[in-house]
Amino acid sequence: MKVLAIDTSNHPMSVALVEDDQLLATTTLNMVCNHSIYLMPTIDRLCQLVKWSPTDLDRVVVAQGPGSYTGIRIAATTAKVLADTLNIDLVGVSSLEVVARNVLPMTTAIIVPFFDTRRGNVFAGAYQWKDGQLTSQIADQHLAMSDLLTQLAKIDQQVIMVGHVTKKLADQFEKLPQNVSLAPRAYGIPSTYQLALVGVDQPAVKEIDPFVPHYLRITEAEANWQKLHPGVTRKNYVREV
Amino acid sequence: MAERTLILAFETSCDETSVAVVENGTKILSNVVATQIDSHQRFGGVVPEVASRHHIEWITRCVDQSLEEAGVGYGDIAAVAVTYGPGLVGSLLVGVTAAKVVAWAHHLPLIPVNHMAGHLYAARYVGEFMYPQMALLVSGGHTELVYMPKEHEYEIIGETRDDAAGEAYDKIGRVLGVNYPAGKTIDEWAAQGHDTFHFPRAMEKEANYDFSFSGLKSAFINTVHNADQRGEQLNKYDLAASFQQSVVDVLAEKTMRALDRYPVKQLILAGGVAANHGLRTRLDHDMAKYHPEVGMLQAPLKLCGDNAAMIGAAGYVDYQHGDHAGMDLNAVPGLMFKRMEVK
Questions:
Q1: Which residue in A116, B21, B241, B265 could disulfide with B130, CB within 3.0 to 4.6 Å?
Q2: Nearest of B69, B73, B70, B95 to residue B82 by alpha carbon
Q3: Would you give the DSSP letter of residue B202?
Q4: In this complex, do A44 and B327 lie within 8 Å of one another by their Cβ atoms?
């Protein structure tokens, strides 16, 4: 199975071409965050290197979020349109899970990947390796970093946090609870090889059209509107004309 | 059978997700438009993040349906055209990303299209273009006079210095309790009222081709608020008629003067506000009176709003001129035609 894996959820952009369980080519950029400019040229170059034509692809696996709204939209649009136009499989994987997988399966600790979302908040989830499978322990969510640390302090197990500690979050990492430690910096960079491997094992989405990023937050405008209009159940606000 | 060149066109610059198949730049084989108006009406205007989210929900459905309605497959397509600006960056990115993927997957050339050129080319479905040409482009985001010495050359000779005409309609609409987009209702009310308030005509007498609508908007809002404070109820039809008369006067007069200064063979009227009946009627009248030698093409009503068919028509011409983008094409939210120094 020829797999393309894409992750542009945050600052790093990563692309991998994987055949069955073999990595053929991968590129990760961690510079100026302009995934719109670099993503397609990177996919194109890697395909040329391994001599794949677009139609050779069997499956596209994408880090579906959470993350930067623009970032996850670029990856999800690329993945869903590619799957649709080539009529190939599409798989979405949590962007937090991708980073959690950087922490070795030998550990029994709770693995907590996190992404800074500014203003002291993070996207975070909790995962744990069980019998070689990474399982979700606490669902991915958006919360205050201080609340996350309070929750983690109550867990009666070792916790390994993994992610990029931005300047804004640095203070809170200086006084981590006793059971919590931070994985080295390199573990915070997503590996699309790992992403592809997860994607190969998962069933493809049944319908491509409804595939959207996992934002984990409704927009501020919609949140305010819902407060003013409780009980409105209309779901679809887009219509063809 | 004559050779046909099919363009698959994408338009997602604001709150419409649209994909079209256009033959030789002049024939619409399909033009699928999914509008988000009902969504943004909740907020009284377009919310960019909400718009971006809707685009990604609809993009593949629009592509598939567009090909299906046209009765063609990717093998029949010659090139992919896409709006890359101006517009909302998050919205543009969905279309640009989708177009790049389709072009890459099927080894097709990618044509970057300026959204304003697209609006202009909506009029191409009415008749052939003749040059030199002048265009009055009026929409919710733009108000500009564009001079085209020949095909594929665009020069702005005048534009709005503040609000776009359509934006002014939405803002005064809000004061009258008309939800976004207010243009159609205000146009209908205006037809039932009279210009009794004589709002200012900004920059009407100035020796340039620029527009300004924020003074008119403020005068309108002040008039309504002052009446409210006196407990007086003003006639909404007369208010609408007075507002529209001011907008139409300025647009028509500046356009006539531009035509005095730049002799052209044809005037194009396009953009969302080109659907305004007051404006269409006024230009018909003024052109017959002042510039009977100049032909006029008004964009068809159903192609005045954002749609991909217009992008396909403009993209076809860009394609003939050899415009190609690489896979590094990015959205350019502030994309503009170059501005010409007006003497």
A1: B265
A2: B95
A3: T
A4: yes
Q: Considering the domain delimited by A2-95+190-217, tell me its CATH architecture.
A: 2-Layer Sandwich (3.30)
Kindly determine whether residue A238 and residue B17, on different chains, have CB atoms separated by under 8 Å. Answer: yes
Answer yes or no: do B105 and A55 touch at CB < 8 A.
Answer: yes
Domain limits of chain A?
Answer: 2-95+190-217, 103-188
* Mutate: best of A81, A207, A218, partner B, most B CBs <10 A: A81
As a whole number of Å, the end-to-end CA separation of chain B is 49
CA distance A5 to chain B (A): 14
Residues of B within 8 A of A69 (CB-CB) are 49, 52, 90
Q: Which two tokens stand for residue B319?
A: 């394609």
Strand partners, B22: B7, B28
The architecture in CATH of the region A103-188 reads 2-Layer Sandwich (3.30)
Closest CA in chain A for residue B107: A54
Asked if A81 lies within 8 A of B61 by C-beta distance, the reply is no
Contact B105 A221 (CB under 8 A): no
Q: Which residue has the tokens 């002014």?
A: B168
Q: Tell me whether the CATH fold assigned to A2-95+190-217 matches the one assigned to A103-188.
A: yes
What is the per-residue pLDDT across B102-132, written as a single tens digit (0 to 9) for each?
A: 999 999 999 999 999 999 999 999 999 999 9
Mean pLDDT for B220-234 is 95
A110 sits in which H/E element = strand A110-116
Nearest chain B alpha carbon to A88? B105
**Which residue is associated with the tokens 């960019």?**
B48
Q: Supply the pTM of this predicted model.
A: 0.96
Regarding an ipTM greater than 0.85, the answer is yes
